[in-house]
Design goal:
Number of strands: 19
Radius of gyration: 26 Å
Number of domains: 2
Shape: globular
Structural class: alpha+beta
Largest sheet: 7 strands, antiparallel
CATH class of the largest domain: Alpha Beta
Number of helices: 9
Amino acid sequence: MRHRLTFGKRIFLTSIAAFLLGIGNSSASLARPQKAAKWVSSWASAEIGVDPKETLPSGKDMTLRQLIRLSVGGGPIRLRISNAFGNSPLEIAGVHVARAVSPASSRIEQSTDRVVTFNGAQAVSIPAGAEYLSDPISLDVAPFATLAVSIHFAGLPQRQTGHPGSRATSYFASGDQLSADSLRDSNKVDRWYYLDGVDVQREKQSAAVAVIGDSIVDGHGVVSNTNRRWTDYLAERLKGRPLAMLNLGIGSNCLAQNCVGPNVPSRFGRDVLSRSGVKYVIILEGVNDLGMLTRDAPAAPEAHRSLVERMIGALAQVTRRAHERGIKVIGATIMPYGASGYYHPDAASDADREAVNAWIRAPGNVDAVVDFETLMRDPARPERLKKQFDSGDGLHPSPEGYRFMGNIIPLSIFQGGDR
């Protein structure tokens, strides 16, 4: 038998439908994804496999406190911990972060001490080859603040991951001292281990400038805890933009072959493309490739041609990868090193350097050029650095050279990256 729907029943069922529809809309509203947080990398370090002579002690119950200087401020923050070169899991019992009292002390401001978690847990096991992001940490940080990151290890891989050229002092001591005002009975070492980056969350959109290179980027010769690399000077000039500055230099690193640490194309994804908010990359790399070719003996013309081709090929490849991510590429020309007693280059080596620099300068290959070669060379002997810019080894800049490098880069090349 069919039942006819009366007017009263129709109103009742319509009301139920409207009520259920309202519940559905409310649920859909609750399930709608929220606007993504605006994270930007404020500090970063390029990791390598640590030389066995420079590893941390193998004891399992140890606290390591590392000091790092941010570029831009904000909050909350999050940490990036790397076991990229480990051969077994990195076992961490706990991590804390706090503002440091000074760049040259293990003391922290106790009121700022925060427990760091990973997926809600204080202990974390990071697999070999992996990098983990922490949960957001409720801590506001000012531009150029010095943070103390304390890690209590439960077990270290045989092959450790770190950055030997920190130019900053780290402290390690036995036991769980995560919340200690300062580490008791600590040892000092001017290296970083496992700490790979710090991101900050910002209300306004921001951007980061990544600088990838060798010891000239890493700051060879800079006194520890002074923050006087050329990238530090540039960061201070960018303070009002605001643009973060990420130093991804590795001492004795190479552009197109493995020297110390992975070559630039093989580390470009981890060190540059994976960082939060990178909109610019400066590439200053290649002097070690050039120097190694003839360090022990002269090389045949074909070896010189092959090296130049591989170096230009590496630059072209990382430029293409950066452009695919919307990152502006700034090529820095390779500075003269004709007075280097370590590499003792010949005329053919200088011609190789000029050939790579010609590619960097040629219109259309990169988006902008910082011509350090022209700015830093001695006009009377263009194969050498100016005397006031030479540290004395014919290869690395002096303190005045680093200051000049950081202050000479036109800020116009970063146009629009902070909007």
